[in-house]
Amino acid sequence: MSLPVSYRVSMPRPHSHLFEVQAHFPPTGEELVATLPVWTPGSYLVREYSRHVQELTATAIDDKPLAMERIDKHTVRVKTSNKPARLHYKVYANELTVRTSHLDGTHGYFNGATLFFYSEALRNREHRVAIHAPPRWQVTTALESQGMEFLAPNYDELVDAPFEIGPHEKLEFTAAGVPHEVVLWGDPLLDEKKLLVDLQRICETEAQLFGGLPMKRYVFFVYGTDKMRGGLEHKASTALVFPRNGFNTSKGWEDFLTLAAHEYFHLWNVKRIKPQKLVPFDYSQENYTGLLWAFEGGTSYYDMLLVRRAGLMPTSRYLLRLGESLTALHTTPGRKVMSLIDASFLSWVKHYRPDENTPNTAISYYLKGEIVCLLLDLHLRKLTKNQQSLDDVMRLLWAKYGDEKGVPEDGIEKAAAEVAGSDLSAFFNQALRSTEELDYSVFSHVGLEAKFRTRESTNDKGGSPPRAKAPDEKQKGYLGVTTRGSGTISTVFEGSPAMEAGLYADDELVALDGMKVDAGTLISRAEEKKPGEKVTVTVFRRDRLTEVEVTLGQKPADAVYLQRLDRPTDEQKASYKAWLGASWDENAEAIRATS
């Protein structure tokens, strides 16, 4: 029987933020080559985890030092003479995100990619972890345990199971016959009973789509923070970061449930149905695929839809939120510059590394991918007279690729064409490979129409129809910038009056036409003017006082909302119900409020 790779993780001084690790490697020949990942699956950015490693040494099992040399920033070579070897090191962990690790006096949390060196030669061996925690702290992870050790069949499974160590208690529920646990940290202000009931409904709704659950046990790790939010999927667990005070409003609760539904859907879409280009993972460098629009964008489409199907989001709210997503797309000039395939492929340098020019040059594969998958779903329903949908594409992908062998780069398109029974190349060429505006005419299949209007304030996210205008209400001037709280310009939009006039990102705001402005008042002051009027914007630019004359433009109609047709056919009403699981007339008054 092959000897396993084993790790011992201790935290004798939690306030130091240092995990202390001992990694034991069986013989691999005359030398051991050990590497720490530079990224973690599900988050497509090189994060250079080795920068947090300190005091790295190598010994034999009798603790005698072994010669070690560094090969590169995250790899070492150890002379072992075909004998077992140990690496001893500490990892600084003071970054509380779902992609990193955190240790302090209240708990320890880690993703395996940040802590565990691996040997490519031993990667498919069993890996074991022993945790030595402070008194009264317990360990929760999705890995199975044997005695005092947690077991993973290989390194990939090990780094796909985060650990939470602390004095927490576990909440429990069962969904689709599978036990689920919820671990809370950070004092999130929520109703625990409601949390379990709603999560159960979401889990069972998703299980129903695929015909059951693919794991024996699942863990939700929920971290309450001051303002951060996000999630990261794993094969039998997820880590969710959410504002601790954000659970107490209906919208906040809706946002949290949508986040949980998103990460849970990844049980299938990403963790088991995955891009072939990512099989196996190369932890030492970027892994490129053009399919993130389907794996992340598709999951973003389903997260809201499944909360709706679970009965936890009214149709009126669902349609409003779809309008907000459409608005977010149309307020991003980068949609005219970057294709969806490129957005997926370049995620390593674009999505996770935004700067002041990102809105002008890039598009999120989450956002546009969500909308493209929405349109694909409606096209499939229309082509098959509601007999087939994107659900059937997901089930086909699950049947073909659920064994984790990986989806070819053209696999999503072929599966969709198979379900449709017709050629979809025109749709995909426009939606994925071009920067043309998307065609929203297919909304008519479900009795809806995409409508455009101007945004009515800086906080206007779209989704709702325009408010009634006063008869004498004038058009508002348009500058074409966004601002940040520090009182500076954050982005100057391509083609805007501000860009044409020569305002820059990072200009420090002083005045508009001699009257003091800041991040909160610049745009509103400009909107008090008419299109075509000239204004003088005074800024500090690298400490030099500068005046820029701008001819204001007309605000673009880039806020989108979905309007219900006045006289829908019976077929459109039936299609609407097949899509959303709600009759056309259900809660009609509430629905009309968003149209």
Short structural summary:
The protein is α+β, with helices and mostly antiparallel strands and 595 residues long. It is built from 16 helices and 29 strands. The C terminus is likely disordered.
Shape estimate: globular
Distance between the termini: 66 Å
**Residues in helices, as a percent range:** 25-40%
Structural class determined from secondary elements: alpha+beta
Biggest β-sheet: strands ordered side by side in the sheet: 4-7-2-1-10-13-12
- CATH level 4 superfamily of the largest domain: Neutral Protease Domain 2
Count of folded domains: 5
Tell me the total number of β-strands.
29
Biggest sheet, in brief? 7 strands, mixed
What is CATH's topology name of the largest domain? Neutral Protease, domain 2
Unreliably modeled segments? 589-595
Briefly, what CATH class of the largest domain? Mainly Alpha
Mean pLDDT over the residues: 96
The number of helical elements comes to: 16
Give the name of the CATH architecture of the largest domain: Orthogonal Bundle
Give the percentage of residues in beta strands.
Answer: 25-35%
What is the gyration radius calculated from CA atoms? 26 Å
Word description of this protein:
The chain has five domains: 162 residues, Immunoglobulin-like (Sandwich), CATH 2.60.40.3650; 96 residues, Neutral Protease, domain 2, CATH 1.10.390; 167 residues, Orthogonal Bundle (Neutral Protease, domain 2), CATH 1.10.390.10; 43 residues, no CATH class; 78 residues, PDZ domain (Pdz3 Domain), CATH 2.30.42.10. The longest helix has 19 residues. Helices cover 28% and strands 25% of the residues. The protein has 595 residues and is of the alpha+beta class. It contains 16 helices and 29 strands. Strands 4-7-2-1-10-13-12 form a seven-stranded mixed beta sheet. The protein has a five-stranded mixed beta sheet with strand order 15-16-17-19-18, covered by helices on one side.
